[in-house]
Write a structure and sequence with these properties.
The chain is α+β, with helices and mostly antiparallel strands. It has two helices and four strands.
């Protein structure tokens, strides 16, 4: 049986986070890491990153976005975008190809 390569990162999938509104989604050059900027009801911008997980592809043909970094927040969109880019660049999954 011939193995099938895992799919490229699904950039069409839009994240949802309970109690927050997604403001912007950014991707690494390879699209294997994405940064998500949200705003909460108090007006704080929050930043998290996810990576495209394909370790289960060989066994179950499963690929999905998985939490990488979570917990940064700031008071302006400009700062949130800067922090988001920094977290994408710093991710250990940034250069990994799907």
């Amino acid at each position: 049986m011939q193995s099938v390569a895992p799919p490229a990162p699904d950039t069409s999938h839009q994240p949802t986070l309970l109690g927050q509104s997604v403001v912007e989604v950014m991707y690494s050059a390879s699209s294997t890491v994405r940064g998500i900027v949200t705003i909460d009801p108090q007006g704080l911008y929050r930043v998290r990153t996810e990576y495209w997980e394909v370790r289960d592809w060989a066994e179950g043909h499963v690929a999905y976005w998985y939490q990488d970094h979570m917990g940064t927040f700031t008071d302006t969109l400009e700062n949130a975008r800067k922090l988001c880019r920094e977290h994408i660049s710093a991710s250990l999954h940034n250069d990994r190809q799907a």
